[in-house]
């Protein structure tokens, strides 16, 4: 059985001596390609980093990533809601509607951040 | 008999009275769901028109809210026509609009009008949400798209009213 630690992507180098505490070949870490002790970790959506970059360009990039991810989620939920039947259909339709609304919200934030094309993307 | 069941019976009875064959059982649920969406849509058309009219004398400060009311009115008119066509394709008689509807609040100010617009969209979203469970894939697209449109318009109204995104958005629109 894999541990919770093993299921969470590594976002920072593990402290010395902890690498050997993870059972070899267990859980999902086996295929992640993350090597403990390697410092070159690029933060992405949903991952935290100790380096704070509040520059407008960084904010626009983050919003653009979120906007694109949300659009993808909305499209997937829309397609799924038409494919399934019964009790699952309302849930997927509702998830689609929520994602679609968030796409518009993120588009508004993008426009505020100086990317007027954000809402139209 | 519940409201939905009596509505279905009413619509189906109207269809049979016209000499059309009695629909199948799975059609009954679809007709009931489409009828519920259409009745919510009729009310939304009335509410958005009333809100737009009430906002008109308020001048430029109400211009943005009035535009929201106008675009919602247009969207619901388009949806109404699509729902009427869908019901007729099922062999049912679409329920007619009532002469008037009781609004949740009098849209006497921009804030009140925006609240009405959001509440109307929430009601339409709930009807569309419930409809997706019983509609076939062919007509479910209508309900799914209607749910998405209602969620966005409700969010716009709440954001325009000054609510923060955390309360202007809904985690699962239509799921009450």
From TrEMBL, chain A:
Residue ranges of the region described as Disordered: 1-56
UniProt feature, compositional bias: Low complexity: 1-44
Protein name: Uncharacterized protein
Protein species of origin: Frankia canadensis
TrEMBL record, chain B:
Domain spans labelled DUF4439: 33-175
The organism's place on the tree of life at top rank: Bacteria
Transmembrane segments annotated in the record for this chain: none
InterPro entries (alphabetical): DUF4439, Ferritin-like, Ferritin-like_SF
Protein name: DUF4439 domain-containing protein
Organism: Frankia canadensis
């Amino acid at each position: 059985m894999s541990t919770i630690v093993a299921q969470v992507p590594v976002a920072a180098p593990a402290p010395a001596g902890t690498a050997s505490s993870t059972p070899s070949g267990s859980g999902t870490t086996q295929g992640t390609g993350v090597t403990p002790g390697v410092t070159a970790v690029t933060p992405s959506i949903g991952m935290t980093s100790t380096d704070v970059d509040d520059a407008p360009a960084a904010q626009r990039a983050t919003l653009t990533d979120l906007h694109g991810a949300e659009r993808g989620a909305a499209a997937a939920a829309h397609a799924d809601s038409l494919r399934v039947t019964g009790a699952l259909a309302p849930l997927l339709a509702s998830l689609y509607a929520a994602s679609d609304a968030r796409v518009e919200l993120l588009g508004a934030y993008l426009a505020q951040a100086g990317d007027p094309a954000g809402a139209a993307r | 008999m519940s409201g939905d069941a009596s509505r279905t019976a009413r619509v189906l009875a109207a269809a049979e009275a016209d000499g059309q064959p009695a629909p199948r059982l799975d059609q009954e649920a679809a007709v009931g769901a489409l009828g519920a969406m259409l009745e919510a849509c009729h009310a939304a058309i009335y509410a958005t028109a009333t809100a737009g009219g009430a906002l008109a004398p308020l001048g430029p400060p109400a211009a943005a809210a009035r535009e929201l009311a106008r675009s919602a009115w247009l969207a619901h008119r388009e949806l109404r026509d699509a729902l009427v066509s869908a019901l007729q394709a099922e062999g049912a008689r679409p329920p007619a609009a009532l002469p008037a509807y009781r609004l949740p609040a009098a849209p006497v100010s921009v804030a009140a009008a925006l609240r009405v617009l959001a509440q109307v969209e929430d009601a339409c979203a709930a009807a569309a949400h419930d409809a997706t469970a019983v509609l076939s894939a062919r007509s479910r697209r209508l309900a799914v798209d209607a749910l998405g449109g209602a969620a966005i318009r409700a969010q716009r109204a709440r954001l325009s009213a000054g609510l923060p995104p955390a309360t202007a958005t809904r985690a699962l629109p239509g799921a009450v």
